Amino acid sequence: MQFGHRHPFGVVRREFLQVGFSGFVGLGLPGLLAARSRAGEAGPGAGGPGPRRAKGVILVFQTGGPSHHETFDPKPEAPAEIRGEYGTIGTSVPGVRFAEHIPMLAGRADRLAVVRTMSHKHNNHLNATHWVMTGQEQPGAFFDKVASRTDYPCYASAMSYLRPREDGLPGGVMLPTYLMEGPLTWPGQHAGFLGPKFDPWQLTQDPNREDFEVENLALPEGFSVERLGGRRALAEAIASQGEAWQARAQSESFSKQRQQAYSMLSSGEVGRAFDLDEEPEHLRDRYGRHMFGQSLLLSRRLIEAGIPIVQVNLGRVQTWDSHADIFRRLREDLLPPTDRGVSALIDDLEARGLLDETLVVLAGEFGRTPKLSTLPGQTIVGRDHWPQVFSAAFAGAGVRGGQVIGRSDKSGAYPATRAFSPADLAATIYRALGIDGQAEVVDMLGRPIRLVTGSPIEELYTGEAV
């Protein structure tokens, strides 16, 4: 079934109860995946200049597609209908300027590498999201093709498959939102054809709320992490809860989620990572007392606790999709919390000695049109979808900060230098984590599928910006 495109202007967003990914997108594929290719152990610089081996990746996803003109690729010399309302601001790197409403990121440009020539061909949110989150085009992609078990696995799921954990913990966590609207479930958020066994852990609660508590991580009354120190104790604790708990455990999705939850709790560090009250008040303030900031703080705590991939969705779904009223929305609602939260994350990782071993990526699924426009019946201007060129920012894990890679044309419409695809982004993420470029997964028909089809963005590490 095909659904019409929905713009966020005037659409009421829904809150959804937290459930397992398998409950959203269908049944798993037990027995169909007979082979597993192990990840290569490529070290720093393997095969030429490359990243330091990262222990973790934080993907900060700006769902809906942020405007590159109003962030990392302003065009101050362009006509007003292209330039827009914002001015530019100097950065900590001489000669590099960002748009004026990200001053804190501008002050950390010496630790950022900005790629201004990300590019692909999908003008639709769902298809584009799948490509950016998996590094592969969605199989059989059509307009608003929803998630299915024919999709490619997201990065965390691929890691779980290639490097299965013995401690029962997931290969990745996505928070604080699940990307869906009405009947539309965004692809690229789960394990796709690998099946629900490899789905990442999905959290859908705002860490900034005073009553923040991850439902599936709540301990039964009378128990503590210390008392749940081993799997036998966990089993005994569950059994002691009586018939009600055992009846609920009959559900496959509940059982899977609960099993991972108790694995998290029993690991100690991971269970405690969700207790943001352990952080000093001044640090929480630095991140910002909002969903963006506290989610980014939680991502650092999860990386520190040993979760290899954390994706933070900056918004509920299509939050950055500014077809109208773009300048007010960005200036008042979106850029300030992003600027503050991501800047605090970089500072915090660096202060803790984690930045050298954590790759931070800030990106959306595409950019916005070079020319301002209005929606039918609207008078306040915005920018529409534009995958032909957009920006992404990188930091940590050997990335050479203080550089801009690639150049868009004078109106910010097309790459003027080499373009980089979502497949190249995926190759960069996988290699940072030590995943070999020849790594394969197995699809539903038992066929080996190359996980990496792009090339790592070498310029991030060599400093030889193009």
From TrEMBL:
PANTHER family: BLL7424 PROTEIN (PTHR43737), DUF1501 DOMAIN-CONTAINING PROTEIN (PTHR43737:SF1). This is Sulfatase. It holds the Pfam family DUF1501. InterPro entries: Alkaline_phosphatase_core_sf, DUF1501.
